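job 3f2a | input accepted
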Amino acid sequence: MPIKTAQIPTADGRADAFAAFPEGGGRHPGVLMYADGFGIRPVLREIARELAGHGYYVLVPNLFYRHGPAPVVELPEYIGEEVRPAIFARLMPLIQAHTAERVLSDADAYLGFLTAQPEVGAGPVAVTGYCIGGLLAIRTAAAHPGRVAAVAGFHGPVGADGPDSFAELTARVHFGHAESDLTPEGLGELNQALDAAGVDHTSEIYPGTVHGFTMADTDAFDPAAMRLHWDRLLPLLGSTLGNG
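job 3f2a | predicted structure (244 res):
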């Protein structure tokens, strides 16, 4: 799948990004993909390429562009347990500085850029996210109820803003939780909040998983859970974006 880099104008500067999309021309449904806390790196390009291979234009912005181009923090090829604490010590100030106001301002810019691309068809888009990106996906979808038709979050703190954060959601939702992140009781409470808000959703714990299970460059990676992620994500996008 072709990949091109981009610079997205925002209220605070320009966000570096990349886009993956099908070969052969034409216009395709748009997907805004939020990276995990480690940010843009080869594994994110591979996930975006695979999704693009199913007929989508996938835009992946550098969440931390205010602090420099990706990779903002130098990363090893493999993020094992022995290096994770030192990396997170450098990342946490960036994550904490990425306030809800910044998230929503950036989301406006990202969606505007995505839908203006000549390879992107008319109609609604989807937003997906991994780890902290799952929370950003929820915030984006809630702020753009008529524009975002589907939202998916994987091993992310999707309920961190509380049950009221779901009130404006009109998108169809899938959440895939890590077993280490959410208890069955916590899952029940989250799903009750989604039900109370009238959100069309599936939300489940992926068995035997730990936080980060989709990321092949970490020791959390779980191939079976990654397959389940695709088994849930692709039908969601196909049914909402008319690409099934």
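job 3f2a | The chain has six helices and eight strands.
job 3f2a | closed
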